[in-house]
Amino acid sequence: MTPAGTPDCLRAPATAREGGIGPRTVEQAHGPGCPAAPSRRTGAAPGARAARTVRFAALGDSLTAGVGDPVEGGRRGWAALLAAAIGGAGTSVVFRNLAVSGALSKDVAEVQAPAALAFAPDIASVVVGVNDTLRRTFDIADVARRLDHVTSALAGRGTVLLTACLPDPGAMFGLPAPLARPLARRQRAVNAVVHALSGRYDTVHLHAADAGWVADRAMWSADRLHPGERGHRLLARRFYELLAARGLADGHPPDAEPDQPHPTTAASLLWLATAGTAWVGRRCTDLLPQLLRLAGDEVHHWARGTSARLDRSAELALSAALAAMSPAVPGAHLGPGTGD
After folding, report:
1. Beta strands 26-30; 91-97: pairing state
2. DSSP state letter for 108
3. CA dihedral sign of residues 173, 216, 266, 74
4. 230 in helix, strand or coil?
5. What are the distances in angstroms from CA 246 to CA 28, 36, 93, 226, 303?
6. How much is the pTM?
7. DSSP letter string over 241-275?
8. 35 in helix, strand or coil?
9. Nearest C-alpha neighbor of 90 from the set 178, 7, 14
10. What would the pLDDT profile of 216-270 be if each residue is shown by its tens digit?
11. Chain-wide mean pLDDT for the chain?
């Protein structure tokens, strides 16, 4: 059943509900300078159902930009795979990927969101925050304010929003506990904000911090931070299932099996020795000094048996961040180590 208030362009035609699959097109463009999308309804013969166009904008960072899923001529990623699948009989999909590798919540709020609003999407994904946790300037209040601004602006125009809770990078990298715990607290705080906003705006929300797929090495690329092709396909399929449950996806679900073979050990080592080394170098100059200080605090409190104070401090910062948003946003807490 289609939720009340869903834009008409997202309501599935009767033939699609019966399983009929018609032609669908995906027009992929990158950046705010892309040409304008076609109109939502095209001309049709008298008595015929007018063809409908669904506009899908993807906002975020390298995860949504498709890092880890290379194809000929560039990158693809879960959002592009999803866009190719959600259209059904009599429905075409125009997809615009505004995500940029390395983007912070600030970039999404100040650059990508205005471009998305100008595009006037029917569906928009907003998946960002991991890069914020890897910056020495991390402030959950700033992240909360920006995400609240982006989601409220898009939801206010009737856009169906896609959001996700994400795994924390410390666990992904397999860092020692004193280094991993501060990053875990940060990511859990970001996830709590996203979860609260999901409840307020009734987003299509995916719990992508589940331990099962995080631990499955076959889902991840060489850097252990971005999904490989199989992982991107899993994200696309899970989002598709959630959209289909709301009556907002009528095509074939994305294939689960990758087109490309999993990177060999040699290819993974080559990446780590080139691009991976450069990435670590950039993070070392930005985050590492502060992370070492945070790790020192972890060890100090652990030795004194006062580690709960660090958790409490993070809880208070999160509570203040949520309180600064609209009172309509439900309360949230850091929750268990799953990230949700």
Report:
1. parallel
2. I
3. negative
4. helix
5. 24, 28, 17, 28, 50
6. 0.78
7. HHHHHTT---SPPPPSS-SSPPPPHHHHHHHIIII
8. coil
9. 14
10. 888 888 777 789 899 999 999 999 999 999 988 888 899 888 777 666 667 666 6
11. 79
